[in-house]
Amino acid sequence: MFARIAGVGSFLPGSPVSNDELARRGVDTTDEWIVTRTGIRTRYLAESSCTSSDLAFEASRRALEAAGTSAAEIDLIIVATSTPDYIFPSTACLLQGKLGNVGAMAFDIQAVCSGFVYAMSVAEKFIRSGSHKKALVVGAEVFSRILDWQDRTTCVLFGDGAGAVVLEASETPGILATASHADGSQHNILSVAGQVCGGKVTGDPFLRMDGQAVFKFAVRVLSEVANECCGAAGVASSEIDWLIPHQANIRIIESTAKKLGLSMDKVVVTVDQHGNTSAASVPLALDAAIRDGRIQRGQKLLLEGVGGGFTWGAALLQF
Ligand code: ACO
Questions:
Q1: Distances (CA, A) of 190 to 184, 204, 211
Q2: How far is residue 40's CA from residue 45's CA, in Å, rounded to a whole number?
Q3: Is the pTM of this model over 0.90?
Q4: Which of 148, 172, 196 is the last residue of a domain?
């Protein structure tokens, strides 16, 4: 029994916000600096009333429609997010309420930009064990809420959005192998170190990052985990039809593809349009390439994530 993707959907709030528009809004930056260093040209920023569960709901509706499944048939809901609506209940439970599903097991996963790949790996285990039949796996973020708009080294990098996948039990091959890891000794190179104490946020509520340390760490672990996953499935990296990496920075993506010996025409890139949407980036990219016809049924896909924690992981699957 495999866990196989039955349908994918995604959602981006509002209209694209260009680099020049950020400069007009007062960020001390230029389109040239951002494009050269990161590849990002636009990102989407949610209105203040729009939450991760709102974005998750729209993406989930599209994924359910693509899968030809009703919300009532889902028996497991996992939302990967680092920008939940509330401290509790989980964004997965809020999403469940919006979808009108009652009874599915529902919980969040917090692994920052690796969250979606972690969530796929967890859902796959539930399905393969036979305990659950149909999972809704979502990455949803409103990272704009945790950005310091006075800090040009971070605020230009991120955006908001959501992507969702319906995974179902199938005898046809689906997920072939997964690998997930973390190294908590690196927690301080990317963090939001605020906490709620006595009803107030104490500490720093904004995202802080050592960009160069993140860059080096990401390139190393992304190629390592790709090789681990391919090795576990007995698939050569040359057999991968599409690499769908976390969309943080075009230079990280290009370095990873080079280390794997994959040409860039086998890599799905959306960082130019979406910016870094953390846990939403992989399903957003996956959905974009399915809807424009690049990804076809039967092809081998390698999904990869890396993010705060530090965390990283990959899922190799037959679509
Ligand atoms: N616009 C204009 N100038 C800027 C900006 C900006 N937005 N941000 C920084 N600068 C300036 C700095 O002030 C500095 O100026 P100075 O030399 O006068 O002091 C100069 O640019 C170089 O700054 P660095 O921080 O050294 O720039 P670097 O070349 O390291 O690039 C970057 C920064 C793009 C963040 C790079 O380190 C990187 O790509 N890191 C990867 C991190 C990443 O993508 N993180 C995403 C989150 S983590 C994840 O998802 C895995």
A1: 11, 13, 8
A2: 14
A3: yes
A4: 172
Profile the chain (319 residues) by mean pLDDT over runs of 10 residues. 97 98 98 98 97 98 98 98 98 98 98 98 98 98 97 98 98 97 97 93 95 95 96 96 98 96 97 98 98 98 98 98
Q: What is the pLDDT of residue 319?
A: 97
> For ligand 1, atom 34, which residue shows the shortest CA distance?
37
Instruction: Please give the Cα distance from 16 to 20 (Å, whole number).
Output: 11
The residue segments making up the domain with residue 180 are 176-318
Among 172, 199, 230, which residue terminates a domain? 172
Domain count, the chain: 2
Of these residues, 19, 101, 113, 274, which one is catalytic? 113
**187 catalytic per annotation:** no
Is 162 in the same domain as 192? no
| Ligand 1 within 6 A of CB of 271 | no
Q: Tell me how far CA of residue 176 lies from CA of 18, 125, 202, 300, in angstroms.
A: 38, 12, 44, 9
- The pLDDT score that the predictor gives to residue 218 is 96
Helix, strand, or coil (residue 78): strand
Identify whether the C-beta of residue 105 lies closer than 8 Å to the C-beta of residue 46: no
- 33 C-alpha to center of ligand 1: Å? 9
